[in-house]
Structures are given as structure tokens and as C-alpha cells.
Amino acid sequence: MSPEAKASFENIVAPVRETLAELPKRDRAIFELRLAHSWQDLFDGLTPPYAGREDFEPFLEKLVSLLACSYVARSEELKMLDLRRSLDTGWFQSERLVGYVFYVDRFAKDLKGVRDHLDYLRDIGAGYIHLMPLLQTRPEPNDGGYAVMDYRMVEPELGTMDDLEALCSELRGEGVSVCLDLVLNHCAREHDWAKKARSGDLEYLKMFHTFPDRTIPDEYEKHLPEVFPETAPGNFTFDEKLGRWVWTTFHDYQWDLAWSEPRVFLEMTDTLLSLANRGVEVFRLDAVAFLWKRLGTDCQNQPEAHDLLQALRACSRIVAPAVAHKAEAIVAPHDLIQYLGTNSRYGKESDLAYHNSLMVQFWSTLATRDTTLMTRTLTKFPEKPANTAWGLYVRGHDDIGWAITGEDAADAGLNGFAHREFLSDYYTGDFPDSQARGEVYQLNPATADRRISGTTASLAGLEYALEVEDETLIDLAIKRILLGHALILGYGGIPLIFMGDELALRNDPSYLDEPDKKTDSRWLHRPKMDWRTADRRKQPGTLEAQVFRGVSELIAARKRTPHLHAATPTRILDAYSNRVFAFARPHPLGTLVAVHNFTEDEQRFQTDLARAEGIYNLYDAISERRIRVETGDMIELAPYQSVWILDRP
Ligand code: GLC
Ligand code: GLC
Question: Alpha-carbon distance 393 to 396, whole Å?
Fold first, then answer.
């Protein structure tokens, strides 16, 4: 420890001993060991944002007392899990882990309902389940649950905290981890903190960024982007009751929390740890890029946001090391990698982060049938720390924003603006020959930016193919869906399957009939589970059976292929063909080469690609077959086929 960290550690450790007094000696020792082990990380994370304040020491005391109390309250069962995980710190990197993501109400009505569908989750083989926001929200509109009114309560329609605890415990018994959103950048205007602030309590007012007039907001606005330009323009909202402007990055009812105030850190740490003590194992930290504001910048990815995430992660490490943190930062590659911890933060910040760029490249390449941009962009992508993993997805609950920089586009001979325009045209079906059926999300008049909504199946052309009843097109659309899944299952991280994709659920336009949803086209791709449709997965010959079986076979292949563990690096290969995308996973057991055909035609690639990686006896781990080498040392790939090549004599 640094001398400063050591001095403060000595100050706080005595009162901790008192709090822990009733615990058995071994438990006390474990806590102290962990506290000492993570203290430097915690101290370093809290110093830049808070050390200049005169209440820094009392704040540290309060925080450590909170950690100790949370540890005392942690159940024996969860403490055993902590122990197990400390023997297997890379548990979330395992090739055997597959994630499944859903809204509780849309999947099964409520938390109890989820327990009735465990067989379905077993069928998929999910070992990680992300229950979309389920804490009590303000009444609609609430941004799909991302406007939390009470972090201590489950949304009453979904159940209670006890139901959540029971579900976590049941799933844990089956080796399944529960992931929950922690919306920490903002809370609902109806949250108690905001209510107190609005009724004039200055202590609570400090928890938000508020301004008496437009002077400072206007200064900030000069550099701020717009998240919802159509439905919630501007980043500040005038609150009549308060008579002040409030920082609201997202909707006017989502008030940004002022993380510059230590109380916010204390409250959120308390929230996180109390949910961890209910059995939540992974936290999806929502919109973390926005946590810290700095005049003259776009107020994203500020160093203090990283400091705070490191400190928060240290708190979990001390109290509940079984817990993993996942950053939701939909930002540019160079900014994104920071959330997995680079330089001095190596391995200390988040265990997981969404690979937004891979998702965007997948859709972009499907549209162009040209892998140049994908190969070049991902080749330049910084390697992630070995002890972290990506959250990999084909689709999620949000829109697709075409995060392709002008520089990356130019590198592939494209114009960034024109390419993004093309992609929006393509996925709304406006481009000639496009079979995609998406919708525009949030046209930004200032930048002409158009994001896209739509389910995987509809964007992949299935909705159209069914409309025109064309068997060939249906088959190709299914192959595109499976290509996306092969990519996320092999790339290096937790594949996150978004509910419905495994059944090729199409767009659901019913949101247009709901007044509080109709302006938000993201509901187009948040369909309800139809259990009759789901049952058709068992009837051979149906569309559902085909897609479900295809996804299941890929999952099974992943689980028997140790090369796909997330600690194995991912190295993009030049495939000498702009029709295929290839990468290597160099593993002590031998290198795996993944090759994906991004076109509806047969493609060929040279065996040299594999030989250069030391693979001579070519075997495909997906189909479990030896690969036939054609004349001229070429390997043939069927339309949209993926192969995972291994050396197997
Ligand atoms: C996150 C969510 C998104 C939400 C936003 C504001 O990024 O994924 O759905 O609108 O945060 O909370
Ligand atoms: C932007 C934000 C992300 C948010 C999303 C909403 O991508 O970065 O946090 O969830 O928009 O659609």
C-alpha cells in the first residue's frame, strides 16, 4: 500500500473490528484480508473524486462500516459461493457459459412465472440469466424500467424482493447466475431523493446537478450529444417545483445523479451490496459512460467515471467477491476498452463490457457482403485484458447506432457518413433489394443520424421472406440468424442471447397501440414470449425447430470447445477474401481458426489460413466433421456457413 492508503487503512480498521465482533474468527479474518487486499484500489478510486473534500475521512469511515455491515448480513450460502468463486475467478470466462436476456413480464408475466419456465432455460443451456430492469419504476413512461423509483423494491407487478431472492437461490442451485441492471447514472424524478430535493431539502438537492438558469447548462450543451433527440431533446429539464434546471441526459423524468457527491456513492454501493446479498451475481451497470460531468467535454468517459467504477468494484471484491460487474458503455473502441481496465487499472474496473463494435460490424457486413471494414476495424481493436470477457450480442433491447468512425470507414475505402446512411436505408428496407424490416429510431436532424430498431429475425430478412413465401429466402434468413450466433458464441466472452432470437421472433408492432410506448420504436424488438410458438421448437420441420436447433447445436459446440474460453486471445486474420471473416483463438491445446462466410453464395478460402496457425489435420468443431480440402488447397464454405477449425489427426 502507498503511505497515504496505509495511514487511512489504519484509521478505519479498528471500528471495523467492532462491527465484526460477533462473527467467527475465520470470517473476521477473511474480511480483514480482503479489505487490506483491495484497499489500495478502493482508496485510489475514491481519491480523485473526493479526497479534496473536508468530509473525506468521515465518508471513508461510513463506507467501510457499510461494507462491514453488508458482510455481516451476507448468508452462509453466499459466503460459500464467494469462496468457490475465489478458487475460480475466471468463472464468467468459461466456454460453458451462455447468457439469456429477457424482460420478466414479457417472458413469464412475473418472477414466480420465471420459475415455471426453468425447463425452457435448461433447454437453451443458459448459465447466466439477465433479468431486465425489475426494480420499482415510476409509472409509465419509464424507459422500459430504466427510471427507478425505489431501488429497495421489486416492481410490485413482478413480485417482491423475497421472490427475487427465491429465484436467485433456485437458479444458483442449478449453477445459473442472475444478472440485474443497476441504473446508477440516474433515478426517476419520483424517487425519494428527488422528491426530497424538490421539497427544498438541500442535502438531497446536492445529489443532482441543478442550475438556477440556463447560463451553465448552455455552456455544457455546446459539447453534449443527444441520446433521444426526437423524444427528449436537450440534456436539461426545467423543473417547475424546484424552479431550477435539472440535468437529464435521457428523458426529462430521469434525473442524473451527481456522483461528485459522496452520498451518491454510498447509496449506490449500499443498493448494489443489498442486491448481492439477495443473490444477484452480475450487475449490469447502466450508462456508466455518463457518470461524471466536466465542462468543455461531451461528459462521457471522464477519468472520474473510471475511478468510481474501480472503487465500486473494490467494494464488491471485499464484501461479495462472487459478484461480477458488467459495464454498459456504448462508446467508441478506444473508450470502450478502458472499462475493462487498462494501464494501472488492469483487471480492476469491470469484468465484462458489451462489445458494441462487433454487433455493429456484424450487421454492417451482412448488408455489404464485404468483410473489409469488419476485418480492419476489429484488427485495430485493442486486445482486452486476459482476466475479462466481452458481453457479445447480435441484438439487445436497445436500438443499433452505427458506431463506425469516419477514420475506420476511410481505412476500408468508404465514406463514414455515406456508409451510415446506407446502413440506415438498408435496415429500414428502403435500399433497393434490401429484405430487412427495421424502423428508424431517433432521427437526429442536426447530424442526420438514424438509429435502427427491429428484431434479429426481421433485420435478417425473415419477415420479408415469410411475407413473400419464398423458401429459399427463408432458408437464407435463418442462416443469417445462425451466422450471428456462431459469431457471438466463438468470439471470446459471454454470448448474450436476447429472448426470442432463438425462435426467430419477428417485429412486434403492437407497441404502436400503447400510448406510453408508441413514440419509442425500440419496443418493436421487445416482443412478448408466445409459449405456443416456443413449443413449436419441438415439432420438426417448423421454423422455430430449425432456428432453435441451429442455435442449440452451436451452443453445444461451444461448450465442448475449451479454446473458446474468454482468457484465450482473439486475433483477427486476413482471410485473403473480402467475403469471409476469420479470427484465431490461440490456445495451449492448439489454435482454433473461426471462419465465417458473410454471403449467400459459396465461398472458398485457402488452407494456408489454417496451416499458418499450425493446423494440418482440419476438423470442424461445429459440424464435428473432418474438413474436405478441394483442389488448389481450397476449403469450401456453404452460404453463411461458419466453421471452427481445429487440428485433429
Ligand atoms: C441504458 C439502457 C437503455 C436506456 C438508457 C437510459 O443504456 O440500455 O434502454 O434507455 O440506459 O437508462
Ligand atoms: C445510447 C447510449 C446508451 C443508451 C442508448 C439508448 O447508445 O449511449 O447508453 O442506452 O443510447 O438507446
Answer: 7
